Amino acid sequence: MDAFVYINKLKLQVEAIKREYQHLINHVQEVKVEKIGTGYLKVMITCKKGEEVLMSILEAFDKLNVNVMQARVSCTHFFRMEAIVDANIDATILSEAILNAIQSPT
């Protein structure tokens, strides 16, 4: 009987961990933009996976006339993108545009 109770407690703990993990996946959203040289910015994005996330980000870059020089994208558990961009734009403006793009993908 003790083993049965212990197994049920473990099952409940696993379910709680799964719910917490799912909650984290659904609410992760981070955009960092930092200047790395004259006219170049490093953009790091982490957010919930979605079908149109990459397209929305690229459209935001296009609207602001930002040229992507190099990019890496990963979609294992989250959507992650790290890019080097050539832009004569303020980092906060670019960050806000990306946040708007990932909050409401087209």
Automatic annotation (TrEMBL):
Could you list the residue ranges forming a coiled coil in this record? 7-34
Q: Which domain of life is it from?
A: Eukaryota
**Compartments where found:** Nucleus
Signal sequence annotation: none
Query: InterPro entries attached here?
Result: bHLH-TF_ACT-like_plant, TF_AMS/ICE1/BHLH6-like
Q: Name one GO molecular function term.
A: DNA-binding transcription factor activity
Pfam families for this protein: bHLH-TF_ACT-like_plant
- This protein's GO CC annotations: nucleus
Residue ranges of every copy of the Plant bHLH transcription factor ACT-like domain listed in the record = 30-103
UniProt keyword list: Coiled coil, Nucleus
Q: Which protein, by its recorded name, is this?
A: Plant bHLH transcription factor ACT-like domain-containing protein
Instruction: Supply the source organism for this entry.
Output: Buddleja alternifolia
Q: What is the lineage of its organism?
A: Eukaryota, Viridiplantae, Streptophyta, Embryophyta, Tracheophyta
